Every structure is written in structure tokens, then in C-alpha cells.
Amino acid sequence: MPFTNAELLVVIDRVCQAVIDHADELTALDRAIGDADHGLNMERGFRAVQSQLEKWRDLAPGAVISEAGKTLVMTIGGASGPLYGTLFMRLGQEFSRVPEATQADLAAALRVAIDAVKARGKSQVGQKTLLDVLEPVHAHLAEPTKGSLRELAAVADAAAQATIALKAERGRASFLGERSRGHMDPGARSCALIVAAAAHSLAGPVPSGSTQDNAKEGLR
Q: Quick one: pLDDT at residue 145?
């Protein structure tokens, strides 16, 4: 699924807008188990990315993703800035090495980016973080018989919902111990929003009267 710089800028813009539109929800989730600033921090970071998109119009797609990551590191407060910044920067670096973004390329790039996030946050799956969304998303992309972008959005949403039952073992939420159960992780929710916005943007609208994605269904 090769894409142009112009198409990527549209995708990133929609990702930014999804985060901005759900800032209050993210803050409410963080209020229950954290500092109540995840929504504010994420909104600030993704507004900053959005404001830079026109300046990146002449860059290669991989460079655009990397620049978005650098901007997030500099503008998102708390732990989320380094984690999301690392995710985007490593994705950008990996995409700069391939001529086309095939499903295999995306899965491989995401694997590298996830491992970098794990190292940066010293965290693993099951600890109630954005990794609990990223790993199922990667597993979906890495399965050759799968690949529908709309299914990918559903995978991310279900993974975020699954963090409700988990006990937090990283960040301020970990101080709550067992009391952190019963609340969705705000980082997992913001990650699911990002995945869903990107997936739906790349897939395009569902044709009238069809239950399948359009010609861009799946990553190929």
C-alpha cells in the first residue's frame, strides 16, 4: 500500500484531530487513576504536530513521521511524550528504509517501534499501558490472512477495553495497586484512538451497500 506525502499528511491530520476531539475523555480517564492531565498533554502535542504539517509537505513520508515524533517529545508532558515520540520516530526511521509500505513492512516497522517503546518505558504487555494496544495491533498486522484496516480499529478498541481489568504496574496509576482495576488505561485509549483514526483514514469510506472496505481494504 504505497502512499504519497500528501496522503500521509491527511492521515496524520486526522489522527491529530481524533486525539484533540477526545481530549476531555482522556482527561476523565486519567482523573480516575492518574494526574488528570493526559488529555491536556495529548491535545497540546497533537495540536503542535497539526500546526507543522504544511511545513513538512516536501518531506518524504518516513521523515514526516519522524518529525511528528520529535514534535511530540518536545510538546507532550509526562511519560507520554517520550513514549509516543519514540513510537513515531522509530516508525519513521523504519519507513525511510523501504520504498513501499506493504503490510509486511508495516508489521516489521511496528515491531521495531514497539520494542523501542518497551525499552524507553521499561514496561511490558499486561502492565496497563499503551503496549496493551500496540501488541494486539501488531499481531493483527503480522497475520498474513488478516489486514483489514477496519478490523484493525476494532482490534485496538477491544485491546483498550481489556485494560479495564488489568492492575497498573507503571506510572502514577501503579500507586493505586488493586484499585487501578476497573478503569481503562488512558494511554491505551489514546493509542486506540490513534490507530483507529489512521486505519479508517487509510481505508476510506465503505462503498454504499457494501459490507467490505473499498479498494484500499487491507494493507498491501
A: 67
Torsion angles phi and psi, residue 100, rounded to 5: -135, 150
- The residue whose grid cell reads 491536556 is 40
Residue with cell 486526522: 14
| Half-sphere exposure at residue 206, Cβ-oriented, CA atoms within 13 angstroms | 10
Supply the pLDDT for residue 174. Answer: 65
Domain of residue 189: give its range.
Answer: 5-203
- The confidence score (pLDDT) of residue 132 equals 97
Q: What is the mean pLDDT of each run of 10 residues along the chain (220 residues)?
A: 80 97 96 90 98 95 96 93 97 86 86 97 93 96 72 94 90 74 93 95 56 33
Residue 158 lies in a domain: yes
Cα 56 to Cα 5, 26, 40, 61: the distances in Å are 9, 28, 25, 9
| Number of domains comprising the chain | 1
In the prediction, which pLDDT does 34 show?
A: 82
In a domain, 14, yes or no: yes
| Structural contact between residues 24 and 176, judged by C-beta atoms closer than 8 angstroms | no
pTM of the model: 0.89
Angstrom distance (rounded) from CA 108 to CA 89: 14
Q: Name which of 142, 121, 115, 118 is nearest 78 in CA terms.
A: 121
Across 25-56, b (16+ Cβ under 10 Å) vs e yields bbbebbeebbbebbbbbbbbbbbbbbeebeeb
CB 87 within 8 A of CB 119: no
